[in-house]
Write a structure and sequence with these properties.
Blueprint (H helix, E strand, L loop, with lengths): L8 H12 L3 E6 L15 E8 L2 E9 H5 L5 H25 L1
Antiparallel strand pairs: 1-2, 2-3
Helix pairs in contact: 1-3
């Protein structure tokens, strides 16, 4: 089983994507268009954009605290990874298919 560090959701996504390719960039925005993201709560949520060579390929909304907090206990680490792994896996699969 893979060892789980106490890294934040943000750090985990960045680390995993950097292992796949240096072409991935993760951008964090404090704002979102209300028409595109009606669930977005300003001041509480952040909009995450994953880019490949400066082109937006994946975007999602997450609570700011959840995105940035370090996961110091086992349950938090497991939950964060449960949220992150499907995103990472889909990006990895797209990268493999592209090659």
């Amino acid at each position: 089983m893979k060892s789980m560090s106490n890294s934040s959701y943000e750090e985990h996504i960045n680390n995993e994507l950097s292992l796949l390719s240096s072409n991935f960039v993760v951008k964090t925005y404090k704002r979102a268009d209300a028409d595109d993201w009606p669930i977005f709560e300003k001041g509480k949520d952040v909009r995450i954009q994953i880019q490949w060579n400066k082109k937006n390929i994946y975007e999602f909304i997450v609570e700011s605290d959840f995105w940035r907090q370090r996961n110091t206990n086992k349950e938090d680490r497991e939950y964060m990874r449960m949220m992150a792994e499907p995103k990472i896996k889909s990006l990895k699969n797209a990268l493999v298919k592209k090659k």
